[in-house]
Amino acid sequence: MVKKFNKILVMSNSIFILLCINLVIQNNILLSSLNDKESAYKELNNTYASLSTNYTKLLQDFNDKQAEYDSLMRIAERQSNELYQLEAQVSNLSEENAQLRFNYSIRLSQINNSINSLKSDLLAFETSINESLNWLQKNNNLANTTFDLLKKDLEQECLEINSEYCDIKAHCIYFVNTHDSFTHKLTYLSEPEDALINITYMYDYKRGGDCEDWSLLFKAEYNYLRDLCNNKHGIPNERVRLIYSTAGAGKCYLDKSKIWYYSNCDEVIVTGKPYMSIACYAESEKAGHCIVALTEHEILNSTIVYTELSNAEYVEPQGGSGITTTLFLYNNKNDVKYLPLVFYVISDSDLYSFYYIESDEWKGYHDFYLEVQNLLDEINNIKLPGI
After folding, report:
1. For residue 294, how many C-alpha atoms fall within 13 Å in the half-sphere facing its CB?
2. What does DSSP say about strands 341-346 and 328-329: parallel, antiparallel, or unpaired?
3. Residue 105 CB: number of other CB atoms within 10 A?
4. Buried b (16+ CB within 10 A) or exposed e, 290-300
5. Residues 204-214 pLDDT 10s
6. How confident is the model at residue 311 (pLDDT cuts 50, 70, 90)?
7. How does strand 261-262 pair with strand 252-253?
8. Angle of helix 211-227 relative to helix 170-178, nearest 10 degrees?
9. According to the model, what pLDDT value does residue 246 have?
10. Which residue, 91, 108, 167, 342, has fewest beta-carbon neighbours within 10 Å?
11. Quick one: three-class SS letters along the chain?
């Protein structure tokens, strides 16, 4: 029994030992597994720590990128608004440009029309100037008319030829024009407006005229007689003399037969001044008068008007007497205060006037003609830009 118990006990111890060994083995296995797990845990923990660090870094990068993105989005939104405003401005500018182009096209057409109109006016003015110059030349000599009887009477009564000189009597010319002894019988006719009429109209139709008409006719008659001196009698201008009357103690005969004369009169001989022009002057603010002027040289341009008239001999064509009144001439704008003041001069080929406001100089039709030519050249050289 005891043996059996001991045997059982031995078996129990053995079993216990086996169990213990097994437990130790299991414990070792578990311990080994635990160590492995602990190592795996540490490795996982390290991995987690690394991942956590990377996550934190990535999160920071994300936040930075998000902030950058938000900033870029704000910039994009602002630029989008600016782009919208620019597009609106471009649209407005495009509309304005279209309107400006339309207005420019209209204005360009208006300017072109104005240029063409100005050119047309200048051409018309040029034509008018040429007509005026031709008119003056046509009316500067009685030879251009058919007044044969008047020519004959003037040559017979008023022209005296001697060995040296060819004399033309001014008072005789007036006598032939007006006296009942002749058929011409011209008279003075007052006109409401001062306007030159051609000598044919004055002689054939009006049978007279006012002071400028008488001066124009007188100059044409004088030029006709002077040409007879040159061409018919071979006496040059240097030896053509005008004789006019002045107050004195003798007689001034009006015809070669010496039937008619002015009493209390003396004759004055003008030598070395064979060229005749018309001078019109202001006697007051509302009244003026025209006479003729004898000069040493022919007035062919505006630059010599003042010089020639300063030394001129003045004659009244209505009577053929000399002018005793001192006449003042324009030389500069300050001369406007002196009366009687010459303001118009009519030569054989031009009409001159003093422009004291615009240019302070004498200017004639030919000067204006040259200015018109220059303006036309400038207009023709204008190149208008396209649209």
Report:
1. 28
2. parallel
3. 12
4. bbbbbbeeebe
5. 777 888 899 99
6. very high
7. antiparallel
8. 120
9. 94
10. 91
11. CHHHHHHHHHHHHHHHHHHHHHHHHHHHHHHHHHHHHHHHHHHHHHHHHHHHHHHHHHHHHHHHHHHHHHHHHHHHHHHHHHHHHHHHHHHHHHHHHHHHHHHHHHHHHHHHHHHHHHHHHHHHHHHHHHHHHHHHHHCCCHHHCCCHHHHHHHHHHHEEECCCCEEEEHHHHHHHHHCCCCCCCCEECCCCCCCCCCHHHHHHHHCEECHHHHHHHHHHHHHHHHHHHHHHCCCCHHHEEEEEEEECCCCEECCCCCCCEECCEEEEEECCCCEEEEEEEECCCCCEEEEEEEECCCCCCHHHHHHHHHCCEEEECCCCEECCCCCEECCCHHHHHCCCEEEEEECCCCEEEEECCCCCEEEEHHHHHHHHHHHHHHHHCCCCCCC
Tokens of 99: 């309107």
Q: Which residues face 282 on adjacent strands?
A: 288, 341
pLDDT in tens, 183-227: 888 888 877 666 788 888 888 777 888 899 999 999 999 999 999
CB 199 within 8 A of CB 216: yes
* Matching residue, tokens 């190592």: 39
Residues 6 or more apart from 110 whose CB is under 8 A from it? Answer: none
Q: Where are the domains of the chain?
A: 139-356
Average pLDDT across the chain, whole number: 86
Out of 110-119, 166-175, 246-255, which region has the weakest mean confidence (pLDDT)? 110-119
The tokens describing 343, both together, are 């303001």
| Closest among 248, 269, 251, 249 to 260, alpha carbons compared | 251
Sole residue written with tokens 């990068």:
61
What CA–CA distance (Å, rounded) separates 374 from 236? Answer: 38
Amino acid at 339: L
Query: How far is residue 216's CA from residue 206's CA, in Å, rounded to a whole number?
Result: 14
Q: Could you tell me the pTM of the whole model?
A: 0.71
Distance in Å from the first CA to the final CA of the chain: 140
